[in-house]
Design goal:
Helix content: 25-40%
Distance between the termini: 22 Å
Mean pLDDT: 85
Structural class: alpha+beta
Order of helices and strands: EEEHHEEE
Number of domains: 1
Low-confidence stretches: none
Oligomer: single chain
CATH class: Alpha Beta
């Protein structure tokens, strides 16, 4: 018997991303996901962050651990106006828009 596929919607949210220079590289770090990546320029670090966080979140969905990881990182599951996750608030760095998969 085939399993019914769950519909996945996408919720946009803002993440605080800190950019730090370490040696010859720039490190982009988002404390709300405890996720970091790097590049040889600020622009490359930002681009790598965007690509990396999309892959990271997609893999969490595939493994079925998205909710556990977000909860461990301090995210809140909110049901109104529709089910979604809200990140913890950090007052530093730049804002980077991401889409968080949310099963409906």
């Amino acid at each position: 018997m085939a399993r019914k596929a769950r519909r996945v919607s996408r919720i946009k949210t803002q993440l605080s991303v800190m950019i730090m220079k370490e040696g010859d590289y720039f490190v982009a770090y988002a404390p709300a996901l405890d996720f970091s990546t790097c590049g040889k320029s600020i622009e490359e670090a930002q681009r790598m962050f965007g690509n990396g966080v999309r892959i990271f979140l997609s893999e969490l969905v595939k493994m079925g651990t998205l909710e556990d990881v977000l909860s461990e990182c301090g995210w809140s599951k909110v049901s109104h106006p529709r089910p979604h996750y809200e990140p913890p608030v950090f007052i530093t760095g730049i804002q980077h828009e991401v889409e968080i998969p949310c099963h409906v």
